[in-house]
TrEMBL record:
Protein's organism: Dactylosporangium salmoneum
Superkingdom of the organism of origin: Bacteria
Family: Belongs to the metallophosphoesterase superfamily. YfcE family.
Gene3D superfamilies, alphabetized: 3.60.21.10
Domain Calcineurin-like phosphoesterase: 4-114
SUPFAM superfamilies associated with the record: Metallo-dependent phosphatases
Name listed for the protein in its UniProt record: Calcineurin-like phosphoesterase domain-containing protein
Source taxonomy: Bacteria, Bacillati, Actinomycetota, Actinomycetes, Micromonosporales
């Protein structure tokens, strides 16, 4: 939620793909888009903070991102891994800092190569 944190992450990353969230103020919004898009390992990726209610999420996201293979989102802090009709994979890594109603703080790792999404793992962090 701070420009300093964004800059610290950016300085450590070869490439940082990030979007602003609902708690981010004008300094971050000046540097980050609402939606980020990239092609990584042949996978067409979109990142967005908010996707709306869980009910109907796959259908809504498939309609909003018809030309993508993978959508990474956040906001709820609740891990999510589903595939929409048509093949769009939806991933929410949860949160490594604010677990909300979840039993564990989490993050996700995955491999994108040759147009495929592989090795999706949800990792739990010790308290």
């Amino acid at each position: 939620m701070s420009l300093e944190s964004y800059e610290a992450l950016s300085s450590r990353a070869r490439r940082l793909i990030a979007v602003y969230g609902n708690n981010d103020g004008p300094p971050l919004r000046a540097h980050l888009p609402e939606v980020a898009e990239a092609v990584l390992g042949g996978v067409r990726l979109a990142v967005v903070h908010e996707t709306g209610p869980a009910t109907g999420r796959e259908r809504r996201c498939a309609a909003r991102f018809p030309d993508h293979d993978l959508l990474v989102f956040g906001h709820s802090h609740i891990p999510w891994d589903t595939t929409a009709p048509g093949g769009l994979r939806l991933l929410n890594p949860g949160s490594p800092t604010d677990r909300r109603r979840q039993p564990h703080a989490t993050y996700m790792t995955l491999t994108l190569a040759n147009g495929l999404i592989n090795d999706v793992l949800l990792h739990r962090l010790a308290r």
